[in-house]
Amino acid sequence: MSEVERNLARVRQLSKWGDADIPQSRDRDAVEDDHGFSDIIKVFVRTWPYIMPLVLGYWRASSWRDSTTNEVGDAAQAPATPWSYRHAPVLASLMAVSGVIWLLDPGSAWQTDALGAMTLVMVGLCWLLLFVSGRGFVLAAVSLVVVASTAMLFAILVVTGWRDNVHIVLVSLSCLSMWLLQYRKHGGVLQFHLRLGCHLVYYYVLVWLAAMVGIVTGFFTIDLINQSVLQAQPLTPFLADFVGRPELAAGAAETLTTAQRHELQMLYIIFLIAIGLLMFPLNVVRPYYNVWIMQQINENLRIALLERWHQLSLRYHGDHRVGDSVYRIYQDSAQVTAIISMVFAIVTQLTQYVVTILFVTALDPILGVLTLSVGLAAIAWAYWFSPRMRTRSLVARETNSDVTSRVQEALGAVRLIKASGMQEHEQQRFEADSVVAFNSAYRVRSLIAVITIVMFTIAAAALLGGEFLMAIWASDNRETFAAVLIGLVGLSFVRWNLSAFQWGQGQQFGASGLTQGLLTQWTTAQDMAMGLERVFGILDIEPDVVDDPNAVAMRPFAQAVHFDHVGFAYVPGQPILTDIDFRALPGTITAIVGPTGSGKSTLVAMLTRLFDPDAGRITIDGTDIRQLSLESLRGNVSVALQENVLFAMSLLDNIRYAVPEASDEAVSLATRVACIDDYVDELPDGLDTMLGDRGGKLSSGQRQRLSIARAVIKDAPILVLDEPTAALDAITEQRVLQRLSEWGEQRAILLITHRVSTIRRADQILYLDGGRIIEQGSHDELMALANGRYRRFVETEEALGRTHVEDAR
User: Is position 688 within any domain?
Assistant: First the structure.
């Protein structure tokens, strides 16, 4: 197929109209989604442990010691006393009493009476928190936050003057002090700690302040422009006092002159500039602060994911593609940060939506019903598209994970691909996966487009109806529904006029935008839930190998490693090892021999508890290794793997990988035992030479010796070598084995190999086949067995060796 034909085929595969091409194995549209609203909420709630540190923050402790009391050391020995926050209700009560403005003349104004009642409720809830716990404490705390927020909004919008605002802020801060500051007297020492680092709380306060400034500014400036500047009508008493021109208030002036209107216009411009300068630092800092917070949360989740990924057994890793795990850890985990942004947006938009409904209902209940109907229609529409969005989002994430896996596999096998001339084949496989990923993403985007268009149509219908009604009411100069309340607030919307029309129009447009914003957030939430569900799918997997609750540290190795009738199977009913029984003593070499697939690597992997036996047990000096802590067990076992895994760092760092703090003497010993010293000097920077990915600058034999050095430097009493000399020439092999034998005189060495020259050095030989030890003994003992499997193996290897020599001649 030519390049042009391939390009045309790719274009035909990409979806343009209608359903995209998705393989049947990945197509879930026909599968009924079993997630409900509560399931989505539960997924989001599960992110709380990773968000909590930035909500609750941390305690910064301090203390003050009375000179007449005991020393601090005595305090440390005394039983701990609980922390107290009894100061908060007392302080809140004092702040409430200080607001005697409304107490001096009760009943004179319902606004101050209502604000006073809210203050009493706040203080009462604060006192209640001293005597409740558990769910009652949470309920009282949430109620306190709601009442305090309502009181602040009421003081800003309804009660005139600035003293009431200061009073409410002081009472609220007094109540909040129980959360921010606590103290106790312990052993004669007055200790207290201050809560810091509540960055999500700080951020939400900034968001709330910005929203309140925007609402209040827009609420009053529109009245100033539309009524006074454009129509020369006097200011409301509130605005007249606010701008410091009481002579321009209604009653003091009939109409405004051109000069007065120009003056008000300049005051309005100055006011906007002042607000802009006030909000500019906040608007600049807030986005950066948000990014910092989100990255902190994402880091918490990724650390937890990678920690669990390391804990999972090789059974899990053997059944899952590496690229899929990478995608879950890197991409799916990022949804936790999107959740915070979404929650902030939803809380802000929902609050503004409710406030908007209340305000437009004050103008006319019909407007309130129209505004509310858009929200109800959005709920019904969301009920239809949500399950479809979830299924398509899950497919998109799975297919993108397939692309990541394909890339990882291709990069990991780049040498094989080049050597086999399979570049074009791998390119085609990648393109096929990429097309599927594109089509799955297209199905998600096309559904989002339909959701947006339908919602816009519903909102537009409500907006047109509302504008038509408001235009008629404004032309008739009709009285607004809550004219008395509007007049008390200080606005001129007591009758329908140009100002009321434009403000009502803006509020309806705003409500429509808020509804569409909430719907967008809910749509995004479906995709987030699917990503997080994949993340929690890893976190929910319990590791097969964990420390016993009563695990102890391993004692110095002295007697034997004993495989006591061990059995194991990756899949139930298909045993890999059966009735494995042998001992490995200090100062001996145990060679494990057998055909491919006989279970040799699985056997030695069980010694470090990469797997646990299904039957029997493995003991070290009589102690079952399941009773030893994993850290101490693996710290006493060195392993040189057949894969020779190296990292893109210096040669020295690769040797010190398992023991980063190893001394130069230990490094020198390891390089000598592994016979690395003969090629280190040839490298450009010696041990400091930086290796490429997977040690690409070294030959197979050099990488294998480096892997042996890494096992030797650990200086563990038990050494496991899996085909340690397979890539070495005969002379180098003999040198390495000689030095290993000398180094391991007091160590138990388990050796997997197929080289007869290596096996001869072993003190005992285990011949495995079909997961069983068929023969066991020394080289001479096994060679003495007529028709023995080991003897046949040795004779076959020697015959092949002679053939190779003759062919070489």
Answer: yes
